[in-house]
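This is your field. Pick holes in the following sequence-structure pair:
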Amino acid sequence: MSQHDVTLTDHTIPLAVRDHGGDGPPVLLLHGLGGTLDAWREVAPPLTAAHRVVAMDLRGHGLSGDAPWEWDAALDDIEAVVDRLGLGAPAIVGQSLGGMLALLWAARHPECPAVVNLDGLRSAENEPGNYPGLDPALVERELARLKAMFDAQQAAMARPVPSEQVAALPPRAVATLDGDSYRRPGPDLLAAVRYSPHFRDAVPSLPKVRCPALIVLATQDPPGMPGGELMAALRRGVRRDLAPITEAHPHIRVVELDAGHDMVREKPDDVTRLITDFLARARET
């Protein structure tokens, strides 16, 4: 089967899907916040050597329809794609927001064969206690800087994109309304995701995952993110909180990758290898 795009129209919202084809156990790919299914353009093709590979635009992203962000509703969207494409019980691979959805999917579906979470455990904007080893006053200052940056990004999503900048943006990341172009997702969806407890901290959901799970942690700061010390402390906090979970749940494996949060784009070959090797081992258990 060759790659083809399709939009599912018999769901509560339209859902844009790219079926990459391939033979073998199915894999569904979920992008991060602000991304689209194009994020997997370099990872998906080599995965088809051993898997049926499908990617989708999450609600409010890409060419999928707009709808309020609700985690259960987003999982229902995934259900619709799985059902309509006859994927049965797919492994779920997600980056950032997609990785958080993968954990919830596995908790909802005990039959899920495996999940891969690519740096999708904890938002950079978090509780002060999740930055161990850093002076509390410094944490407070850096969190204020981070909040200001995210507030500005969210506000920018509500403004039309200048016409001279539209061509430089990925086509799936822009929507037209009343003749003006706007970035997707919109500010309301960003706000709903940004302040939801599961986006801020998905670590507590891990013990509910019963299938083999691979957690891939980035070791580099995201480009343009203020406060290198803050990001290093955030990574320390994630490692601290993962240690007792992985000890109690040996089916959850954690590896670190010398890449930033956007590891799918930065290190597609390494990400593909990690996914392929892990899913092969999961099938053997």
User: Anything to note?
Assistant: The chain has one domain: 4-136+139-145+183-284. The first strand starts at residue 4 and ends at 8.
